[in-house]
Specification:
By secondary structure, the chain is α/β, with parallel strands linked by helices. The chain is 38% helix and 18% strand. It has a 7-stranded mixed sheet with strand order 3-2-1-4-5-10-11, sandwiched between helices. The protein is elongated and about 70 Å long.
């Protein structure tokens, strides 16, 4: 592997919504770069840090103990100003002024889009996929997804206990935006009676029918895992169930941002580390405009221009799953 010895420093930023494992990735970027004699500057609050010129040099001590920490020590956020061409040009000029030989951008699909804009302006950039939604194209899984699923599974298990005690239906709304991956994975893992996703809309009567069938089989609970982008919100579906003649009294819980926080899982820590190291190696070998994708149990570099607009993280089997019954 031929390294570019002209690169003396690179930058790293976290953009978009936070995801467990972002800190582990920042740590990996810093450690991998320092090992190769390259300095690392952290950019605060995503692309906002480039706009406001807020960066700080990171050394090994500053990233110590980050493997087990959720969130992002650099902060993470969205930057509406970055959509403007003149603002992006100013950011690119600042990257050159700061003598950064490239950027590692850790974040979701919007972060990838921003990274590609900088790449087209001549700034070497490598994107690392980090979002709990697992809705990014080109990669089988993103940093933070595994932890979010584990968090949802624990919550659904607890809610299942109280649902069984009171002969109730409980609707658990999980995050995911337009992607039902979190709902499907957590629903399968907890034996939920029904999973409702944006990709597979269903009729309300189908919900009622399945509840009736479950009651006839002697089930003392009815768990519905609802993706936040589905056709109903949790409160709305709960109201519709309770207004109809159904065998279960319905309640709902919205997990919300609890799925983003907490210590990353073992898988997310290792995934973030491997992707962070790969991103540094890519920059130092002159590669730009790529995504560090997880595919076939390894990290691969996928050109950003080759990626579709939307991800399809399901595959042939999962797209057919609409509800899971424990018959």
């Amino acid at each position: 592997m031929m390294l570019n010895t002209d690169i003396g420093a690179i930058g790293v930023l976290c953009s978009g919504g936070d995801a467990p494992g972002m800190n582990a990735c920042v740590r990996a970027v810093v450690r991998a770069a320092l090992y190769r004699g390259v300095k690392v500057w952290g950019v605060y609050d995503g692309y906002n840090g480039l706009v406001r010129r807020e960066i700080e040099e990171l050394d090994s001590a500053k990233v110590a103990g980050l493997l087990q920490r959720g969130g992002s020590i650099l902060g993470s956020g969205r930057c509406p100003e970055f959509h403007e061409a003149d603002v992006r040009a100013q950011c690119a000029a600042y990257v050159r002024e700061a003598d950064l030989g490239g950027l590692v951008v850790i974040g979701g699909d919007g972060s990838l889009a921003g990274a590609m804009e900088l790449h087209r302006m001549g700034i070497p950039v490598v994107a690392v996929p980090a979002t709990i939604d697992n809705d990014m194209p080109g990669t089988e899984i993103t940093i933070g997804t595994d932890t979010a699923i584990n968090t949802a599974v624990e919550a659904i298990d607890r809610l299942s206990d109280t649902a069984s005690s009171h002969n109730r239906a409980i609707i658990v709304e999980v995050m995911g935006r337009h992607c039902g991956y979190l709902a499907v994975q957590s629903g399968i893992a907890t034996g939920a009676e029904m999973i409702i996703t944006p990709e597979r809309p269903i009729e309300l009567q189908s919900v009622f029918d399945e509840m009736t069938n479950a009651e006839r089989r002697g089930k003392n609970r009815f768990m519905i895992v609802l993706a936040e982008g589905a056709q109903w919100h949790a409160s709305e579906l709960t109201r519709l169930i309770n207004e109809a003649d159904n065998p279960y009294d319905a309640r709902f819980t919205i997990l919300g941002y609890i799925q983003r926080g907490g210590a990353p899982s073992r898988f997310d820590r290792i995934l973030a580390t491997r992707m962070g190291v790969s991103a540094v190696e890519a920059l130092l070998t002159g590669v730009s405009g790529v995504l560090t994708a997880w595919s076939h149990n390894r990290v691969e570099l996928v050109p950003g221009d080759d990626l579709p607009e939307r991800a399809d993280p399901w595959g042939e089997t999962l797209t057919r799953i609409q509800r899971i019954s424990t018959r």
